[in-house]
Each structure stands twice: as structure tokens, then as C-alpha cells.
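Risk register update: the risk of archive-format incompatibility is retired. Evidence:
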Amino acid sequence: ASSEADVVVFSDFRHGIFSPRTIPQLIATIPATAFRAADSQVANRWGNILDFQDFDLLTPNEREARFALGDQDSVIRPMALELYRRARCKTLILKLGDRGLITYRSPREDDVRAFFTIDSFAGHVVDPVGAGDALLAYATLAMVATQSPVIASVLGSMAAGIACEREGNQPVAPEDVLKKLEGVERQTSYEFA
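Archived output:
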């Protein structure tokens, strides 16, 4: 509560810190001006991304979204929209594994649509462990620095792709993302090394 943090990230693995009792207490202590991001895992323990209402950024994967909504059948776009509406978040980046991601954002007057998709930037996938963490970290920092869901989604997806190309959960350095960006830029200019 006494923190002067600019950003607060809740990464909920349900290993003892987050519970229905503690989540509201922890959320209440976030400084009013801090950017609030959250991710919630559905693995060996069940977290629920909808526990983090009114956050600036949520980054669940498809399984976590379906669990939160109790929806096994809807196609991605309407399911993601329903999660976005129910979470009342400003930006939702729904991770879709090798299919990339879909991002919902607060519509502005000049927006043609409030969502967009981005393909995966993973080349040769070795190990997906840590990809979600990399996306959460880079997307959060990009949102704080630029306030652009598009930039945040691209950088987050690139960081996730890099994490997938490595064995184990290794940190993704800014230099790694810059190198990936340069490679994509070369490809879009039809320059292949």
C-alpha cells in the first residue's frame, strides 16, 4: 500500500498468495495511479482471470479464458469479447499459442473495430515454457511506455516467440527483441539473410 510503483503485475499461479479472500485485499492496496496488469493460470491449480476486474491489461490464454467463462464451445472472437466485457479491462490480450493472439481494446471514435489479431512470431518452437511470462512482461512495459495496445501486442508476441525458441524459462533480453524486430523488418522488405 505504501509503494509508489508505476506498474503492478499480478501473476496468479494459485500457489498460496492469491485466493478469493486475498485478491480483493491485494487489489485494494494498489496505488491509484499505477498501471495494473494480471495473468492467471489454469494448470495444476485453478486461477480465474475474472478475479482481476477493471485492470488495465489482462493476458490469459484460451484455456484460462474458457475456464473463467465456463465456455467450451464458442469460437474465439465472441468468446474473447465476452471475457473482455465481463472483466471490464482496458486491454485484453488473449494468447492463442501457435495461432498468435487476439487483442481487445477500449474503442476510440476513429477505431474501425475494437479488436485485432497478430500471428505468432515463434520460428522453430523448442519449449513454450515462459512464453506467457515474456508476453506479460513486454506487453505491460510497452503499454506503460506507449499506451498503444498494438505496440504492446506486437512486442509481447515477439518476446513470447523468442521464449518458445529456447529450452527452459530463460529471460528475454531487450536485445533479443530488437534482433527479432530487425529480422521481421528485413523480411517485410524482402531481404533475407
